[in-house]
Specification:
The chain is mainly beta and about 60 residues long. The protein has one domain. The chain has no helices and four strands. A four-stranded antiparallel beta sheet has the order 1-2-3-4, with no helix packed on it. It is elongated, with a radius of gyration of 15 Å.
């Protein structure tokens, strides 16, 4: 399952990915994506991020 959060310009700025194969009744946060966009007003309509950060999690705590 993926949950996206959008900003006021309808761009995804945060995305969570959950998986359910680790525990039968719980979801596990497998990854998190954070997108960074330009502050320049000319690029508000552009959906391309200038940088993104991804965190990947394991059930072992890594």
């Amino acid at each position: 399952m993926i949950i996206n959060f959008i900003d006021e310009f309808n761009r995804i700025y945060l995305s969570y990915t959950f998986g359910g194969n680790h525990h039968p009744k719980k979801l596990f946060l497998e990854s998190l994506y954070y997108f960074i966009y330009s502050d320049d007003k000319e690029f508000y309509a552009c959906s391309k991020s200038i940088k993104d950060v991804q965190y990947i999690f394991t059930p072992e705590g890594n």
